Amino acid sequence: MKDIKNRTIIILIVVYLIILSSNFFIINDKITGRVLGTISLMVESPDADNDGVPDAVDNCIDTPNSNQQNSDNDGVGDACDNCPLKTNPSQTDNDNDDVGNACDNCPNIYNSEQSNLDGDQNGDVCDNDIDGDGIPNVRDLLLGNKTHIKTNIHDLIIKIDGSENISRDFNPVAYIEFSNDTNNFLEFEYNFSMNQTLELSKVTIQKQTATSENGFMLVKGIDSPIVRAKTIFVDNINKTRSSICIKDYEINSIGEISSDCNSSYETKILCPGSVGSYTCLDFNKQYKIQGLTHSGIIETSDDKKEIPSTQYRYKKKLIIPEYQEIIKKALFDILVEIPSKYKVLIPRGELLATITLINFGDEIETNVNIFYTIKSLDKIISTDNETMMVLGDTSFIKRFRLPKTIEPNNYILHIQIFYNNQSAISYDSFKVIKLEKQLVKNPVIILSSLMIPFIIISMIIIYIYYRLKRLNRK
Questions:
Q1: What is the pLDDT of residue 445?
Q2: Three-state secondary structure along 387-421?
Q3: Rounded distance between C-alpha atoms, residue 455 and residue 433, angstroms
Q4: HSE, side-chain direction, 13 A CA sphere, residue 291
Q5: For residue 22, what are the CA distances in angstroms to 9, 17, 25, 26, 39?
Q6: In CATH, what number does 332-432 get?
Q7: Which of 209, 386, 217, 228 is nearest to 293 (CA)?
Q8: pLDDT, tens digit, 9 for 90 and up, residues 238-288
Q9: How far apart are CA 345 and CA 227, in angstroms?
Q10: E strand or H helix that includes residue 323
Q11: Rounded distance between C-alpha atoms, residue 316 and residue 320, angstroms
Q12: What are the structural domain ranges in the chain?
């Protein structure tokens, strides 16, 4: 009886093993399958993600990955590995940002995007110098450099107060320019004293391509209230047109400007001319548009079929009477030039500059306020202002006395004019050097300096002579 019981147990074990290795399966306590002379049994193997790979051997049980790719060979498939290129079988993720500690550039601070502006080992959220310029974030008000700007302009140059060194502290209000070796593209004043950071990685500057029929410029990401006096330059490539269309609204593409310049936030201006707070000046190869906030600008068709020639527009002479009604006031631009003789100065030296006001509009007597500022890269040295009545083009010489305490450094003379709710800006640079002591070349002083030692020596000789004479008498 005991042998029978043992045999029964053995038979049951064998049957169980056969079931485990069979090609068929059991469902609802019923055996289904094919009969091929013998009966085979198949047991279902679990596959939670339905990727065709049983859970027992699936390296991502809950994530479909039929190819079972595992780049770092850590036993966890790429599809569910929080560091697919770095071995981390434990999948530790302290900040729960789905990026494992092994490859997280901020393992203890949530940053699933892993943004890293300067490309160092620390992500932006845990980097005390995000752009790697040597200035801590707590006082760095300009993040990034020209490589972070989204632009199609080659050899882009950024200058702040006339200097390409943008990894430094700035004046409370600084003048920022974007240009290359041949053209200006964008200028504006930025109020750094408001402690609002200007992030260059969020800035877009796009211009027309070589195949474009019309010149255009799209500027995005520089529309803060602390940006003042924004000016944009647009290439004049369509010589059959002399108008521009402004879309003073943040747009993603120049194609969002309507063909007839008649949509929301759009303003058409015949150049030179002004509408509201906008002014357009024509410099033949470029239009200079002032008074902007957001800004997409494109050359557009004129309202008249006939237009002034480029030559006459550049000379500010409108040959069609109807056009004379468009410009009803003065439109000034300003140019400041420091002669080469005054480019290098010493403390208490005299700075001289030639200032030219160019009127693109009517020769109407206009009250112009002029503000002068001498400043270094991080400090304002002196300010001055004056008001004058200007009729047409005007040029004059302005002299400034540098303070005795001014330090050797690079400086700029910054000039801004205000008139009829319009403004224009220009500047030029100069350098102050240390005053070296030099030999005075005045003949009288030179002769006097030579006589003093002679007199002293003569007096010594005379004293010795009379002393010896007295001794001899004794």
A1: 58
A2: EEEECCCEEEEEEEECCCCCCCEEEEEEEEEEECC
A3: 39
A4: 20
A5: 20, 9, 8, 11, 9
A6: 2.60.40.3880
A7: 228
A8: 988 889 999 998 899 999 999 999 999 999 999 988 888 899 998 889 999
A9: 33
A10: helix 321-324
A11: 12
A12: 128-324, 332-432, 440-474
Nearest-CA neighbor of 43 among 16, 17, 20?
Answer: 20
**Cβ count near 142 (within 10 Å):** 23
pLDDT surpassing 50 at residue 181: yes
The amino acid present at 435, given as its one-letter code, is: L
Taking residues 2-26, what's their average pLDDT? 54
What H or E segment, with its residue span, contains residue 112?
Answer: none
Please say whether the beta carbons of 428 and 415 come within 8 A. Answer: no
Residue 214: both structure tokens together? 């019309």
3-class DSSP state of 428 = strand
Rounded CA-CA distance 433/409 in Å is: 7
Q: Structure tokens of 37?
A: 């002379």
Distance, CA of 453 to chain centre: 65
Of 171, 71, 136, 141, nearest to 409 (Cα)? 171
pLDDT in tens, 424-450: 888 899 999 987 655 445 565 566 667
The single residue listed with the structure tokens 């091929």 is: 36
Number of other CB atoms surrounding residue 153 within 10 Å: 18
Query: Can you give the pTM of this predicted structure?
Result: 0.66
- At 41 the pLDDT is 45
Structural tokens at position 364: 């109407």
